[in-house]
Amino acid sequence: TSRGLGDVYKRQEICLRYISQKKNVYGLLRKCRNGEFLNMEHKNIVATIYLKNGQAVKGMDNFEPMGWDVISLARLYNDSGIDKIIIFDLSDDDEEHEKNIHTIKNINRNVEIKVCAGGNISRFEDVKKFIYAGCLQVIVNGAKSNSMDIAREASDRFGKERILVSVANVDFVFKHLSLIHISEPTRRRGI
């Protein structure tokens, strides 16, 4: 029998509620598989932390503190089976940026999972700071005019697999196609 979109949204809501109740993600995956909620066998679960002034905040546009110590939040993700944490540095100035880099370094000292970070990158040195803070990958904002120069220099220094570029639309991809690494599985699919 086919299920409607309402059923899909309801199952996703149940799974997301399960995570928000801070229950173990492995239990979630078991529950979702047994209940045919989601097929997670080849998926990664990625958590996001927005950093403002060294604290976890609710979102990019909502700087209200999460109510969690950021290290405790990262440990919760680590202990719950999350595969990767993406951290967005929402700093406004260099002093706050340094504070957030220090926080990211502390997160990396306290978790075993992969950490990727980005935000407030305006020069190659900012990418270096994220890498030296222990980030597996650094996310460069593709909307900034100098981002591709920074990404190219960082890729040459640290490797293409360590630099990610966030894009707002597919036009960016076609404009910079010569600079983009296409993975072998993607190439095999003819994309």
Q: What fraction, in percent, of the residue positions are helical? A: 40-55%
Summarize the biggest pleated sheet: 6 strands, mixed
Order of helices and strands: HHEEHEHEHEHEHH
- Report how far the terminal alpha carbons are from each other: 32 Å
Beta-strand residue fraction: 15-25%
Mean pLDDT: 77
Structural class: alpha/beta
Shape: globular
Say how many strands there are. Answer: 6
Supply Rg: 18 Å
Q: In DSSP terms, counting alpha (H) and pi (I) runs of 4 or more, how many helices?
A: 8
**Strand order in the sheet with the most strands:** 2-1-3-4-5-6
Uncertain regions: pLDDT < 50 for 5+ in a row? 1-24, 29-40
Description:
The protein is an alpha/beta fold and 191 residues long. Helices cover 45% and strands 16% of the residues. It has 8 helices and 6 strands, in the order ααββαβαβαβαβαα. It has a 6-stranded mixed beta sheet, with helices on one face. β3 (84-89), α4 (94-110) and β4 form a beta-alpha-beta unit. α1 runs antiparallel to α2 (25-34) and α3 (70-79) runs parallel beside α4. The chain starts with a helix and ends with a helix. Mean pLDDT is 77; it is low at 1-24 and 29-40.
Record the SSE blueprint.
Blueprint: H1 5-20, H2 25-34, E1 46-52, E2 55-57, H3 70-79, E3 84-89, H4 94-110, E4 114-118, H5 124-132, E5 137-141, H6 147-158, E6 163-166, H7 170-175, H8 184-189
Parallel strand pairs: 1-3, 3-4, 4-5, 5-6
Antiparallel strand pairs: 1-2
Helix pairs in contact: 1-2, 3-4
